[in-house]
Input
Amino acid sequence: MARLTDMRIGVLMGGRSSERDISMKTGQAVHQSLIRRGYDAVAIDVTDRLYDDLKDLKVAMAFLALHGPGGEDGMIQGFLETMGIPYTGSGVLASAVGMHKSTAKTLLLAHGIPLPAGTVVRESDRPSLATILRQVKLKLPIVVKPVSQGSTIGVTIVRRSNQWKDALTLAHRYDSEVMVESYIPGHEATVSLLGTAADGPIVLPAIEIVAPEGFYDFSAKYQKGKTRYLCPAPFPPKVVRHVSELARRTYEVLGCEGAARVDFRITPRGRPYVLEINTAPGMTETSLLPMAATQVGITYDDLVERILQSALDRAHRVAWGIPKE
Output
């Protein structure tokens, strides 16, 4: 089996999604890390020339630093599989399901994982707020968000009835399907995982996210100093164990591999609800996944190598047609 240092690694970043800028920061940080560790790594901004770029640069493995549609929804994963290029992170199916919140929710609910009550509103429907609240047995506040977006893009917490139409319009700007869910009061938390579906993931320490006004939106995520991160999260041990187990189950039910992150809301009484899974978490040096890894002695460069190694392990299994022991 080839050694990682013998392979040219293409760090795929950028793309066309609304998360392009964040992806570029992730990709640049990963690329610099690989160079520090002595890898033959090249940075590739994903455009419609990607096939030619991968061929011309003789890329043998891809480190995916793409976020949002086209990058973490199974599309790039399927493209790389047709080219026979191993890649980091989850496969086609887990990526597609994880990105499509409604499909992921249906699957997770079938496995008994607690999620907020809600429904899907299609662009052609445009129901009244009263109809939605009655049919789904919700009450204000509610959360309105695109089915297939990340970084809290297009999300509104509807607290008053006069916000409903604008919230739908905003969310439908990004997706023809929109999730409408019960708002869970309490704490925001996230749990990162690292590993493979075959081996079972390492569950990293939970992080509590203390955002301004209690809403971890795009500006709270990416404007420096707006949000506090408490790692490890100062929850009671019982709550920490519960969210860690739910994160592991979510990862395994969806068939994830490599790195992932599961986001939660936790009620004041300590009851957690899974909000969504991110199968391509941010990897800037101040992102939540590296923050959690540091707590268990995994440096940023170590983390990048572990993610890369998981891709090689999967490639080996696929090539030989046998499960990894």
